[in-house]
Amino acid sequence: MNRASSILNRFAAFWLVFCSLAVAGAAENAPELALFQRHVAPLLKKYCVDCHGPTTAEADFSLESIDPNLALGSDLEAWRLVAEQLQFGDMPPADSEQPTHKERDLLLTWIRQSLRQTQLPGVTRDEKLLLPQYGNYVDHQFLFSERLPRVTPAPPRIWRLRPDIYERQMPRLAEKVTDLANGLNVTEGPTFKDYAASYFLDEAATTPLLSNAKKIAERMIAPQSKDHALKALVSDQAPPTDQMVREAIEVAFRKTLGRAPSSEESQRFFTFYRKSAEVGDYQLAARSLLTAILLQPEVLFRQELGDGQPDEFGRVRLRSQETAFAISYSLADEPLKEFLTAAEEGKLATSAEVAALVRERLRDDSPLQEKNPRVLGFFREYFDYPFATEVFKEPPPGGTHLPQQLVADLETNIRDILRDDREVLKELLTTNDYYVNANYKPDKTRQVTLQMTTAKMQKYPTAFGLPLDWKWTLERQPISFPAEERSGVLTHPAWLAAWSGNFDNHPVQRGKWVRTHLLGGTVPDVPIGVDARVPELDHTSFRNRLAMATSATECWRCHRKMDPLGVTFERYDHYGRFQRLDAGQPVDASGEITRTGIAELDGTKVSGPTELMNVLADSEYVEQVFVRHAFRYFLGRNETLGDANTLQDAHQAYRNSGGSFRELIVSLLSSDSFLLRQSPLVTEE
């Protein structure tokens, strides 16, 4: 059996066993179902069914046929809503009979325990819960409470390459390859894009990838190619010998896959070449051979299957080469030599060895912080400020709007914070030192220095509230703005412009971002058919117009999670400029933190966005939510309850190092969640 077939067969076997384990898990859920029938169902009937039953489904929400077997995944969202309403006392309504504290606690305990069963690795059948926007569904309190006996990692996976890797690697395989088609799609929107569960290859994608492989194969044997072993396959002087073909196969494998072929692979491709030569000619056979190698699964997929003898808990370690590629692609868009070399030398065998190598790789004192591009990439995707360039705006009266420059200025700030690597999250949320038209660029000697562009930038300072006659000097950079006006990324004009509309602010989306990215909450999608427009009214502030549009009970049920947070940013207009008046009225930028379940946060009232940022920056809970997002980005999947120890260790590493983002990454990439896979072929007794 060839290696590719072996991999696919093993992967298929893994998932067949997981399906059987899911069925077994449903059977093991019988005690929970019995508890539901005996205690939970009577309470739902007593307090809920009158308003949410078969005849009177208020708010279009009925409990008549809700499935108590949460392992099946069909009613997970409904149960989450029930738990939220009970937790915050929203239901039953104040004018209805209320459950006792003991009854409410019993309902909540049963729902939470049942939901947690679905958050174990490999259990959920609802594929959408594997996507990045559903990461916050996993129970935060459980993840950061008591230590578990061990980490239960994710199952083995075959992970399609992200376009950045493909587009960087493929042109390098041959000289002067251009105009390669993009056959790999990427998810758009404010979520992490490189997720194992998000992508697949279909016929539409395969066609351009085949065309690319043919084009690259042609260039690999072209006269200007530097690979003499490959050019020898198409020499006009004589057909290649068997030894030359085998040598070419090894060169092509090393060049394309970063490894030598196995003896089985070498023989299989040699046979393929000979059969192709019999049908056509040896030059056509050479092109077919290289095209076939360029379409190997390893070229398009990351394989994280693990190998070796499972431990007593059924966990297997990634092979050394799998580990090397996994680390490389977590930090960059290409295989990194130091990790490939370490894999060949057997120096990726322990977590300590991995941690030491990752820590060394992360050392970077350069201004641009581009040694590990995916580190800066995390903050681009997390805050999504580059989207400012996609939001069209007319220039404001008396000023200008240059979103590309706003983004570049914000990134200068972020690069500085990453280079200092101290209290990274707090600095990102609270710094009031901004660069204005000052960016790191190579000078004529190729040395990277802080530079300014003065041409056509006369009105640009107005985006930051600076006067038109502001003096451009590097000595004044970064500029310290008043602490009550600016505080971190979320009050920077780039982020504010990204999270705005073409003509107005967007407090709902801004509040949703804070709720999901800093407070770890969830917000349902907008129901189909809802008119989400804010009325146009003269002499009325946007905050008041938004309140008019969302005051109905069915609207406020979701908007109360977002609007009290998002309206604090009304202190700025949709260009990101500080404002004291809106529609001729004094700006009301007050807000409140609610519905987090965290005692030290809930009920906190703030006077504006800078106070909100300082409150959140001081919260250990917000730090933990940040760690969860870093986990998702660098591991390419949502966390499960089995990753609790990994998350606790990563958070502790961040705190113990004085808020070092590098140490947070080291902890994640050397964790059992990253290095191990749960083999379903071995189960615990």
From TrEMBL:
Domain Cytochrome C Planctomycete-type residue range list: 48-95
Domain DUF1588 span(s) in chain numbering: 486-580
The protein, known as: Cytochrome c domain-containing protein
Pfam families: PSCyt1, PSCyt3, PSD2, PSD4
Keywords: Signal
Ranges where the DUF1585 domain occurs: 602-674
Top-level taxon: Bacteria
